[in-house]
Each structure stands twice: as C-alpha cells, then as structure tokens.
Design goal:
Blueprint (H helix, E strand, L loop, with lengths): L4 E4 L3 E8 L1 H9 L6 E2 L10 E2 L1 H9 L6 H7 L2 E4 H10 L3
Helix pairs in contact: 1-4
Length: 91
C-alpha cells in the first residue's frame, strides 16, 4: 500500500487520512461524535465517519454514495490528528 502524506501545521509530515467534517470539527470541540472506520488490515487509519454520517447513510440506502459524501463533507487530516479524533471518541 502506498502511503500518501500531508503536511500538518501542528504535526509536520504525516500519513494523509480522510474523515467526515464532523470528526474534524471534534478536534476543536473536544466532544465525541462517534467514530466508525473502514477496517483495512493494511491501513490502521482507514476512512472514518461519525454517528450522524452513519445514521444518514443508513437512512439513505445504507451505502456511501455522492449524496452521503456531500453530507459528510469529507476532509483530510494528518495521521496524528486522526489518532486524536479517535482518542476523543474513546478508541
């Protein structure tokens, strides 16, 4: 697996990860919004989303598609920020 990187102002060069905007916002609020992720044995930082996105996807056919991705407003986080979001969520 090719690991793509991103430069974070706080953590420097890190693995690039993708999360919903609600998870990214939890870095500022410090409040858990739930944490779901795509399990991939080759990538311990799989794409992640919150409870609201999980509920929205379930109510809209249960699959990720253009509609659910618009709701999620997928954004990039560095690996260290991803780990912090996961920690905020109790994992």
């Amino acid at each position: 697996m090719e690991v793509r990187t991103v430069t974070c102002p706080e953590h420097g060069e890190q693995q690039m990860t993708f999360v919903c905007s609600h998870l990214a916002d939890s870095l500022q609020s410090g409040e858990s919004v739930g944490f779901f992720w795509h399990a991939d044995p080759e990538n311990p930082r799989g794409d992640a989303w919150c409870q609201a996105c999980e509920d929205y996807a379930a109510a809209n056919g249960g699959e990720w598609n253009e509609k659910t991705e618009i709701f999620a407003k997928v954004t990039v986080l560095c690996g260290a920020c991803y780990d912090r979001v996961k920690e905020i969520s109790g994992f």
